[in-house]
Amino acid sequence: MPWVRLDDDFFDHDKAVRAGRDGRDLFIVSIAYSNHNLLDGKIAREVLSHLAMKAGVEAPTAAAEKLVEVGLWETTERG
Prior knowledge:
It is built from three helices and no strands. The protein is mainly alpha-helical. Helix 1 crosses helix 2 and helix 1 (about 15-35) packs across helix 3 (about 60-70).
């Protein structure tokens, strides 16, 4: 079974705190999704709603924008 590594200090990290619960939860789900699909951290815009649903995030665009703002995600042409 594949797995991902998460630092035990992640929830206290400045970026995770500033991302808020929705951003943090979306980030964790995106790590697992990327790992499972061998995407090397690249998340397409088309799957944002799916990942948000899995994370229990009701405003995926706002959460994604927050992740970019705090530096946990970077915007690319595809996502």
